[in-house]
Amino acid sequence: MDPKVETHVLDNGLTILTKELHHVPLVSHWVWYRVGSRNETKGKTGISHWVEHMQFKGTPKYPVNVLDQAISRDGGVWNAMTSLDWTAYFETLPSHKLDIALDLEADRMLNSLFDKEETELERTVVISEREGNENESLFRLGEAVQLAAFETHPYRNQVIGELEDLKSITRDGLYQHYRDHYAPNHALIALAGDFDKQQVVEKIRALYGSVKKRETGDVTPIPEPVLKNSQKIEIEGPGDTIYLQLSYRSPAANSDDFFALTVIDSLLSGPSSLSMMGGGGVSNKTSRLYQALVEKDLAVSISGGVQATIDPYLYELLAILPPEKSTDAALMTIDREMTRLQQEKVSPQELARAVKQAKALFAYGSESITNQAFWLGYASMFADHTWFETYIQRIEQVSPEQILAFAQHWLDPNRRIIGIYRPKNNRN
Amino acid sequence: MANQPETLKNLPGSQNINRFTLPNGITALTFNNSSAQSVNIFGLMDNGARLDPPDKLGTANFTAAMLSRGTTSKAFAEFHEILESRGASLSFSSGTHSTSFHGKALAEDITVLLDLASDGLRRPAFPKDYVERMRQQLLAGLAIREQDTAEIASLIFDEALFPGHPYGKPVDGFIETVQAITRQDLVDFHTRFFQPQDLILVIAGAIEGLDVRKLIETYFADWQSTPGQRPSLPAIPQAPKAIVRRHRFIEDKSQTDLILGTYGPSRKSEDYLPAYLGNNILGQFGLMGRIGESVRSKSGLAYSASSGINAWADGGSWEFSAGLNPENLDKAVRLIRDEIERYISEPVTGEELDDSQSNLIGRLPLSLETNAGIANAILTIERFELGLDYYQHYAEKIRAITPQQILETAQKYLHPDLLVITSAGSGKDIP
Lengths: 428, 431
Known about the structure:
heterodimer, A: alpha+beta, Cytochrome Bc1 Complex, Chain A, domain 1, 2 domains, 6-stranded mixed sheet, 16 helices, 11 strands, B: alpha+beta, 5-stranded mixed sheet, disordered N terminus
């Protein structure tokens, strides 16, 4: 029933994925670049994200305001996001307006101005974005945990970058990063919605066909598949809330283990939707950790987070505790549940529930055209689009034995980071 | 590409919304969307935090949270086992005017949603241990709110703009008021203010071939109302007569959140659409309109700076907000007030108007793309009595608005010297 995804690769390496869906007169067009914080080196953290900002600052053909107007005036929404492994730009708009989006993205792959004055104005905007993040206790805790979780791999850095780097990165540095990574062989176009695929592929060929390949000169980071030991990071700050974060190494997204983790996450703390484009979630009140922590009054909430990444990253659990509660008690309880996963096989009923939950989330997430195109491109950043198409199937294949093995290897209490944020002046 | 009439045919309207009322007063609206696999149920119960006792602010919110904490027929665990084993969700929340719920499931599980929604609304058990557990969760939420610069700036903005009025009070209450609420308060609030005639129920999703009316009757028809009076909302206080400035110190913050604004039109007012369209030009279009252009793009002062209209049944607010380095606070206030001055002094240009009209009309189908979007849109037209064909005529209505109308509406509400300005972050309190 689902329409087929078609792949076209131009001679210059540009990959085009199309999925025609005609139930609404909309189209979502995404351009993905294989560059993110994973490609950043010391002194340059945050540069990919800042480049993303500069992509909204105009080209000779589409000066800054024209660019804005072009998409917005016809009811399109457009935005961009930078992550660990990728940077993505999208426009979702009425189908008869697709040409403007195609033209605009092709233009800014090559011709963004990186005007000096605009670069300086954007420096303070990006610093302001970071300061907004710093306002959150959880950002501070997450930043400290992430730094401790990797020795050399760039996943240790925040996508937003270090303040020092944001102060010192230059216009020319930004431009170089742009020129190195914004090339057809590092890019992928994903389209979903109401269009004719042949026509669209021809249009894209006409727009990008003459753009040359480029090599980045990036050094591929060395994956860090295991944490060498257990560390405890404690930070203090204002407020009346304790945050307890546990970070375990997570497998690369393109591995069977990743699907075992997806099921485990669902069992432990409720299913999380991988979609960054909404669609909604399912609550987690019957999950093992909710039952053990919240229903026993050891914490007021528990959540888990899996991210699909190229290299091994982090599986995170976050518990929120009132100030008078004991982090040790919460931690012991979590460890007891981890031990249970390592020793007892999960029942077929629990597995079936995780599958049904994944199916439901998948159905909700598929309702929007934007999400459909998102998934195609997203999956291609760490695997290929079949990853998305076989997602449910691979979750169905996860066996109790695999979960046992996963828990024993990846959820080892001696290989993890414990992060605790404590209120420094408890009012009680 | 779909042509215009085809597009209209698919938008919610009297031709595809099935609206009916049950003898007990429940209003239901259903919409079939066979391109999706899910079903969404939205409900809106006319009650909400406006009915909170002043010393027990947060009662409506606490009550709503308890509706999914066990009923007289299903314990907490069973209630959520039914939902979560199906990948379904159902949550209750409350606002100033209402308690609302949103349920979502695969289409095959529609009866499960109706059953649980009905059970939660009508037969909550308020189990003692869950009342205390929920209190801890709500208090934790309030403790987190205390550290959130944007939330606190907004809270003290509402207090200063609507002194003594329910619009000026936080739906989630305060630590002291939530501590004061007893289980009996929740039971009483529920008994008094949950009545079938106050419920609007909207279902959107893959419901083709289902007798949805019959399903709704199965779970809701035997709900009888109990007679009782409810207090009416007091009059909205006078608009600010000068600059009212408030600041709340919050320790250890890199960024200060700013909110500045005044009254806006109610959702039912004739002024709403001209204000809404005008505000799109002022603080939304493209990269946050004129405000974004001035504060972010041209000055580099903030990552986010925009304006918005909050319109409720009896009134509303027109708010400008930005997150700023404390050093740039005064400058941003100046820039925003300059933009307000300009906005009330000269009509928007024809080009700006045309851009924003196209933007609002063009993005309507996008907001109606998912079942949740459709259900929410239908709820809005029912709640604010906009008429079943509101979306059918939306484009004409937007196109008919003139620069002069936008200017007159702006002058009615906005003035750069009559504003509430609040902020939260570093620096001494301004009480």
